[in-house]
Give the backbone structure.
Amino acid sequence: MTRRVVIVDDHGIFRSGLRAELGDAVDVVGEASDVDSAVRLITAHRPEVVLLDVHLPGGTGGGGAEVVRLCRPVHSETRFLAISVSDDASDVVSVIRAGARGYVTKTISTPDLIDALEQVALGDAVFSPRLAYFVLDAFGTAGVRRMGSATRSWTAFRRGRLR
């Protein structure tokens, strides 16, 4: 089944490139460049997944986290995956606290992004490896960090099983 996706990023060239890279793997039902147009588009199209940048103009200045906070209560079936150049802990934590199901950096490969979109659509949480520690720390589960290689092995196992 092809997932219905909305792309939200303030850089048109990135949206176009992302759409081209995703190809037929997903059905991109719309694109938005700011908080206000994103909320309108998500309300109109009710996508399964919103792929959104963290830093967006418009709204009250809350960026991607604001989009999630405004849409999630009304569209609980829509899931959000943040994609950003930023790997700053405060960016990661703010969008996850708002309700996003994952956060990946823009260095992600196309196959890994397609896989992440599918996992988020299924309700799983997805993070670029380095960013997962920020989330664990922020939500009081830093004890998991001690597992180190076991956590990485589980992730590798899951990826292998799902492909």
Notes: Strands lie at 3-8, 26-32, 49-52, 79-84, 102-105, 126-127. The first strand starts at residue 3 and ends at 8. The two ends are 15 Å apart (CA to CA). The domain at 3-162 is CATH 3.40.50.2300 (Rossmann fold).
